[in-house]
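Hi R.,

Here's the chain you asked about this morning:
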Amino acid sequence: MTTPTVEETTMARTDLARAAHVRGVRGVARRLRGSGLTVGLWFWGLYALYAVGITVGNAAAGNDLEISALDATLGATRWPMIAIGVIASSAILTLHVAAGGGRRSMFEGVLRGSVVVGAGFGVVTTLALLGERLLSTSLGMTWRRLGALPFDSPLTVLGTTVAEALALATYALVGACIGIGFTYGGARGTLLIVPLALPAVLADVATRTGVIGTIANVELRPDIDHAEVPPAEGLLTLLLGLGGVAVAALLAAVLLRALLRTAPVRAR
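And the predicted structure, written out as tokens:
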């Protein structure tokens, strides 16, 4: 039996480290996806009951709902994503470090998981909007979005799907930052909510949805009693929205990376 050379030993250690890194990334992403699936089933199940109930109820009463039930909740899909990021990252981090995982694999795993969960929620959001529109129009009611990006052609529907996916991934990443900050900074870590609001606010403003995005686009016509949020129009608006929310997602990822690089990550 020959003794391995220094080069062979180094290569073997590198391969083992790489394999461990890949397992760590996959493990973190898998746990985040699992949390997203569980939360998503509950959220969308309850939302379906709410949307169908409020639409059919208004039709039966002779009312015209006019605005999407989903938009009327001012971005309700955002809050489950923050919760997924906070809870999953807080729970995963300790287990990940205890199992020998590193900062980079933690970051990549959370990033992958957030993108996948955001994409899933984004697709379901678009399907929910299309379903709402079909149900409302079939009942003889008018339907429009409250602000938001254009949603009147196959291209703009696809653009909305991408924009929602990026916005929701941004919120999941923000939630992960808050969870990690609280885990290792306690009450002081909660103060991260203030600077971390930036990518979330940017995502809302870019997509013209959520609490901030809706408020930012309120128009008084002609006074406060007749305030409304007109729907967006035009391809340029769509492209600007996609660009803005992409920047928001990138910023959230950069903040998460910076936090993981400086946080006192250790097993407890």
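Strands lie at 66-67, 143-144, 219-220, 227-228.

Let me know if you need anything else.
M.
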